[in-house]
Amino acid sequence: MIKLYNYELSGNCYKLRLLMHLLGVAYTSVAVDFHPGREHRSEAFLAINPFGQLPVIEDGDYRLRDAQAILVYLASRYDETLSWFPMDPEARGQVVSWLAVADDITRTASAARLHDALGYQLDVETARRDTHVLFRRIDDHLAEAEIAGRGWLVGNSATIADIACFPYVALSHEGGIARDSYPALRRWIERVRRLDGFIGMPGIFAISL
Ligand SMILES: N[C@@H](CCC(=O)N[C@@H](CS)C(=O)NCC(=O)O)C(=O)O
Fold it and tell me: Domain of 74?
């Protein structure tokens, strides 16, 4: 069974829990005391991931770090529908371009949240300003997609691009970043929350249908 090195409040860990639920993939969690214990910097954890970051998974003898890489792995290995990481070369390229945006969202919106929620010392104003630049671009992209009759970052159905970008967008208020000016972004959040098999996390609540 897959083993996830996990911190419940981490959006990067949550995106993996979410995809595994959506795919119906069983997993066990190993709790890592990210805060306040800083266990991700312990010698024992650095032996698992020398980059000192969560998340990490182990699937049998195979170990993989980096949330976006793990989404690619999980979809490629366990998605029988081939829809979460589509095979079409153009769609696949677009999905990967959004996985890179997900990392930008971690560097900005997640940083602001770490500042506000966990007291990290960092330049929160810059993090918030850069988040708004990203949110404006994502909102514009989603608004254009809606006009073309689509509701997702890539194509006509949800992909790992949506799962990768979703958590820290939906948690942005915890970093003092309002989403009032981004109506298409807000509608997209609701669509993700309505996915069959969706689970929430603290700060992101599942809709009871
Ligand atoms: N690109 C990495 C970023 C992961 C990341 O920033 N993880 C956070 C927890 S959510 C972390 O471990 N931060 C500690 C650090 O970077 O020192 C990924 O997507 O997995």
Answer: 2-78
| Domain harbouring 65, CATH code | 3.40.30.10
Substitution site in 10, 51, 53, 71 for ligand 1 pocket (most atoms within 8 Å of beta carbon): 53
Show Cβ contacts of residue 34 under 8 Å, excluding neighbours closer than 6 positions: 7, 9, 10, 40, 54
Q: DSSP letters along 113-173, please?
A: HHHHHH---S-HHHHHHHHHHHHHHHHHHHHHHHHTT--SSSTTS--HHHHHHHHHHHTGG
Classify residue 201: in a domain, yes or no: no
117/103 Cα distance (integer angstroms): 20
Phi and psi at residue 71, to the nearest 5°: -60, -45
Q: Whose CA is nearest to atom 20 of ligand 1?
A: 66
Distance of CA 54 from the midpoint of ligand 1 (Å) = 5
Give the pLDDT confidence of 47-78 residue by residue, as tens digits.
999 999 999 999 999 999 999 999 999 999 99
Looking at the structure of the chain, the number of domains it has is: 2
Instruction: Tell whether 74 and 94 lie within a shared domain.
Output: no
Q: Whole-prediction pTM value? A: 0.97
Residue 106 Cα: closest atom of ligand 1: 6
